[in-house]
Amino acid sequence: MRLHHLGTWMAVAAATALALGSTGCVVEDEPAGDLGLDEADGLQIEDDPDPGYLAAPSCPPRIHRYPLVNAYNNGYDASWNTFTCTGHLGNSDFIAGQHLGNDIFAPRGTPVVVAKAGRVINAGYTSIGGNRVSIVDECGWVTYYAHLDSIASGMVVGAQVPTGALVGTLGDTGSAQGTAPHLHFSVYPEGNYNGGVDPFPLLKKYLPTACGSTYRSHMNGKCIDVPSANFVAGQRVKMWDCNGSGAQRWRRVGNVHRTGGDMVGGLCMDVAGGNPANLTPIQLWHCNGATPQAFQYVNKELRSVLAPGKCVDIAGWNSANGAELILWPCTGAANQRWDYINPI
Ligand SMILES: [Zn+2]
Q1: CATH topology for the 212-341 domain
Q2: How do residues 67-113 score in pLDDT, each as one tens digit?
Q3: How far is the CA of 241 from the centre of ligand 1 (A)?
Q4: Domain residue limits, the chain
Q5: Which of 122, 251, 305, 344 has most Cβ atoms within 10 angstroms of its Cβ?
Q6: CA of 106 to the centre of ligand 1 (A)
Q7: Topology of 36-208 in CATH?
Q8: What predicted TM-score, i.e. pTM, was given to this entire model?
Q9: Cβ–Cβ under 8 Å, residues 250 and 262
Q10: Residues 279 and 328 sit within 8 Å (Cβ to Cβ)
């Protein structure tokens, strides 16, 4: 027996009678050809080299970014195949004792990236996980990425990999073969897959920020950042070392620059208080289409529509993390020039 979603898109499944499992969740008969117990989706890790139970993790589980780049659907429900950048369709399909992770659906080939920096402990093919990668962080929590179409060259056992590094591309390998391409994502204590936690509360914070590209400074290679991923109106926008996180991803819609991929509502880059004076901070504000939120991206500059001739500027040529962004007359200098690029 298998969770409903793993067979739903198969024609045979349409005719499969639904039944209620012991948890009360709707399940259906296993689709023909399925391999049965699944490293990703069941309770066994048949070939995982983890040595078994290790010391309990030394901190709560955490991630630092969403593991996909570009549109996705997190968890299974009736809208599983509607891919967006907003997260508003996101949910958890974690079921304790049955499905120890979240399935994240997206087009085949979508880049999968490291959600939490750490050391690669597994990388390669298994009959169940397919192409899969496991990374353990400094606290002993493993992030696990299964059913990949391909594994990136940087994912070799023993390598230390940063948050945002390319893990591979999304696919349907292993026991997911022939199903809708998805990433199976788990978070568990090293050596104890069955002790995994529902990753959805961790993923949720980053759901709206999977899409978009970074603004990388010509002055110092740093990126325009929402400090501490604090997505609230009034938050000052600052500079930080580029890390590919959702807090550094912006989606351009005309002259408007939205946080992450949030296309519905959300927060936009904004001239604080609508004040066109020099030194006015750049902040986040509820997207409203007004001129303080309009910046033309021309010649690598972000030119204010509210204050013609003024640009988004790194105040005082300050190279430190946390340097502020302000409005200042356009000069064409490196502290006002940005590459708009995907971090991958
Ligand atoms: Zn799964």
Answers
A1: Trefoil (Acidic Fibroblast Growth Factor, subunit A) (2.80.10)
A2: 998 889 999 999 999 998 778 889 999 999 889 999 999 999 998 99
A3: 33
A4: 36-208, 212-341
A5: 122
A6: 13
A7: Glucose Permease (Domain IIA) (2.70.70)
A8: 0.67
A9: no
A10: yes
